[in-house]
């Protein structure tokens, strides 16, 4: 979506051009059966190409590629910890992009396009701010009950005020 698409054919035998492949999750529908077979074959190759029994280097995630790692054990541990943290963040990011793509039709889509949500009932309430709009990650307002929303909003304001005072009470001494 951001950089454009490659010119030419993705699969000349199938007559599939890069420009014909939609962005996001909709691209999955364009993968031919032979493509799925290639993907599965590569996954199987990656799984069985090295011994990964407990105690082996591959089991510990060391596949002998030292360009981005180090021979120093402390440095290697530091880099592997960073890799694990970055991998976790990337997993959360891609799931978020899949979710947004499924709801708005684009991984970079505008949440305003998702109008089927009962959360839209609270979009004009006090505290709703760009860029996320009405934010309820736990889904407490999924039922659309105005009465429950108002009770929770009053509780939120009360707890916010107490937390601000507690923070000042912690910092001041």
From TrEMBL:
Pfam families reported for this sequence: Chloroa_b-bind
Keywords linked to the UniProt accession: Chloroplast, Photosynthesis, Plastid
UniProt main location, coarse: plastid
UniProt key word Nucleus: no
GO cellular component: chloroplast; membrane
Subcellular localization, as worded in the UniProt entry: Plastid, Chloroplast
InterPro entries registered for this protein in UniProt: Chloro_AB-bd_pln, Chloroa_b-bind
Domain of life: Eukaryota
Any one GO BP annotation for this protein: photosynthesis, light harvesting
Matches recorded under PANTHER family: CHLOROPHYLL A/B BINDING PROTEIN
UniProt-recorded name of the protein: Caroteno-chlorophyll a-c-binding protein
């Amino acid at each position: 979506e951001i950089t454009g698409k490659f010119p030419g054919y993705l699969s000349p035998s199938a007559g599939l051009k890069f420009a014909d492949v939609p962005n996001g999750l909709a691209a999955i529908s364009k993968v031919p059966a032979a493509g799925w077979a290639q993907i599965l074959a590569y996954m199987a190759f990656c799984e069985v190409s090295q011994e990964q029994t407990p105690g082996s280097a591959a089991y510990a995630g060391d596949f002998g590629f030292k360009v981005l790692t180090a021979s120093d054990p402390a440095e290697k541990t530091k880099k592997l910890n960073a890799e694990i943290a970055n991998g976790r963040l990337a997993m959360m990011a891609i799931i978020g992009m899949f979710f947004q793509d499924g709801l708005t039709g684009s991984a970079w889509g505008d949440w305003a396009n998702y109008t089927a949500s009962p959360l839209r009932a609270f979009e004009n309430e006090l505290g709703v701010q760009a860029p996320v709009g009405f934010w309820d990650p736990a889904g407490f307002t999924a039922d659309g009950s105005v009465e429950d929303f108002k009770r929770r909003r009053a509780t939120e304001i009360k707890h916010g005020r107490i937390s601000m005072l507690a923070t000042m009470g912690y910092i001041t001494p």
